[in-house]
UniProtKB/TrEMBL annotation:
The modification 4-aspartylphosphate is found at D55. Pfam families: Response_reg. The keyword RNA-binding does not apply. Keywords: Phosphoprotein. InterPro entries: CheY-like_superfamily (IPR011006), EvgA-like (IPR051015), Sig_transdc_resp-reg_receiver (IPR001789). SUPFAM superfamilies: CheY-like. This is Two-component system OmpR family response regulator. Residues 2-120 form the Response regulatory domain. SMART domains: REC. The lineage of its organism: Bacteria, Pseudomonadati, Pseudomonadota, Betaproteobacteria, Burkholderiales.
């Protein structure tokens, strides 16, 4: 499974990539730190990703714009939000925009890994 990561914190990004590769069989195909870069990459590489993992607060723009930019994705492609602000209102907004799942960075990493494994990573 190929994942594109949109996260502006290098430490979180590197730890996430390592964890997903090791525990869920997910291969990172790249990253960006802004809404514009992420949305553009996803549009330019429509068939090069299976999963996008998006933080909501980025160097420029918002992960909400990235979710919205993925509306025309292939049905097999998944959009996951990984944020420190997974409040009920934020979760609702993300799902309204088309996110497939929303996880809290501080409490839901195991659930994120399970989600990825269920999608087709390592069993």
């Amino acid at each position: 499974m190929r994942a594109y990561i949109i996260e502006d914190n290098p430490t979180i990004r590197e730890n996430l990539v390592g964890t997903l590769e090791e525990l869920a069989g997910v291969k990172s195909v790249g990253f960006s730190e802004t809404e514009g870069q992420g949305a553009q990459w996803l549009q330019d590489h429509r068939d090069k990703w299976d999963l996008v993992i998006v933080d909501l607060f980025l160097k420029q723009g918002s992960g909400l714009g990235v979710i919205e930019a993925c509306k025309q994705r292939d049905p097999r492609q998944r959009v996951i939000v990984l944020t420190n602000y997974a409040t009920p209102d934020i979760r609702t907004r993300c799902y309204q925009l088309g996110a497939d799942a929303v996880f809290d960075k501080s409490t839901d990493i195991d659930s994120l890994i399970d989600f990825c494994v269920d999608l087709g990573g390592v069993n």
